[in-house]
Amino acid sequence: MSITADSIRSALRSVLDPATGQGIVASGQLADISVGTDGAVTLRIDLISPGFPRRDELEQSVRDALAALAPPSLELQWGLRVPHKPARQDLNRLPTVKNVIAVAAGKGGVGKSTVSVNVALALHQLGARVGILDADIYGPSVPKMLGTPERPAGTAEGGGGIAPALYRGIAVMSVDYFVEPGAAVIWRGPMIHKLLTQFLEAVRWGELDYLIVDLPPGTGDAQLSLAQLIPLTGSIIVTTPQEVALIDVRKAVNMFGKLEVPVLGVAENMSHYRCPACGHRDEIFGAGGGKRLAEEIGVELLAQIPIEPAIAFGGEAGVPVVESNPQSPHAQAFFTLAAEAALRTSQRSATGPKRSSLLRTVD
Ligand SMILES: Nc1ncnc2c1ncn2[C@@H]1O[C@H](COP(=O)(O)OP(=O)(O)OP(=O)(O)O)[C@@H](O)[C@H]1O
Ligand SMILES: [Mg+2]
Question: How many other C-beta atoms are found inside a 10 Å radius of the C-beta of residue 221?
């Protein structure tokens, strides 16, 4: 029996994407089939998230399903098509952005901005279209961390919209571009509201799979009103292992709960130190904080990022470690975080219940 595109399609009808449980034929993820004259098969399958952590599993199911057809060779090519769940009507401010992910923490200094820039760069390197919005009105630091301190040239306010800065293909917008250096700005509610609304409505973000938002630390009114303005798809909560004040983090989770924004998981930063000389792992700040926190709020620990001087230097120098040394173990931790967060985002978009039933109440 000769192999045809139809016979392949029907053999693959039973193959499910392990992350969504949906058939790859029915969902359209099986994007292309080509059969050579000698029967050699090449397939293109679209994955739902960059760095898809369950790709090997999916590949095995595809190979098993086609074993009976015994093609002389089988090549799989992987594409990326991130699913999109439209935001609530009233929040449909970013029609060209598929997912908006907030990076948040109960308190300052835990590494939110470091996580934001490295996750954004990791998603970009994994093939996604990415932007980053620095909404930290108290201490905007993304432009410094990315070495893009200048307000982008050619910024056209008004009809043409505002052009974002660009860092290696990533669109960057920051509160910092609109504040005089060193000026002690007291941001009042209406000012924050106006600026953020402009960022959302007037910035030419272009087509993005992910917009990463670095939120200001804390869970006060300012954070709440910011999070209300931005049509968030999900949030990553950053903590350190010694974080004992769970109460702050619970407040952050509660804030997202009120807004019906799912918490995608916890990132434990400054998790451990690995001695570069002997490889010894030292939990200098204590152990287990991220895991305990994740259990406490009913989500998963997505990644543990080691404490590593190169991470801090990268932020200072304007070239984050994911860019300067992507193969290093500390950069790889950011890739893991990015892939795990993206996977959960896509799972929710592809299969999740309506946003209102994702409401999580934590007292
Ligand atoms: N894993 C890490 N290893 C070493 N240094 C780190 C790590 N993560 C962050 N840092 C450093 O810790 C400091 C605080 O990080 P960052 O500015 O990202 O925190 P933040 O939560 O955004 O702070 P803020 O609340 O002030 O906005 C920075 O100097 C950063 O370079
Ligand atoms: Mg910060």
Answer: 10
Q: Are 125 and 322 in contact (CB under 8 A)?
A: yes
Q: Which three-class secondary structure state does DSSP give residue 53?
A: coil
- The answer to whether the predicted template modeling score (pTM) of the entire model surpasses 0.70 is yes
Distances (CA, A) of 355 to 48, 149, 262, 339: 19, 37, 8, 22
Which of 103, 107, 113, 114 to probe ligand 1 with, by most ligand atoms within 8 A of CB? Answer: 114
For 110-162, the pLDDT digits (tens) are 899 999 999 999 999 999 999 999 988 778 899 999 998 777 765 555 557 88
- CB 256, CB 228: distance < 8 Å: no
Rounded distance, CA 138 to CA 154, Å?
Answer: 26
Beta bridge partners of 150: none
Q: Which atom of ligand 1 lies at the shortest distance from residue 305's CA?
A: 1
Atom of ligand 1 nearest to the CA of 330: 1
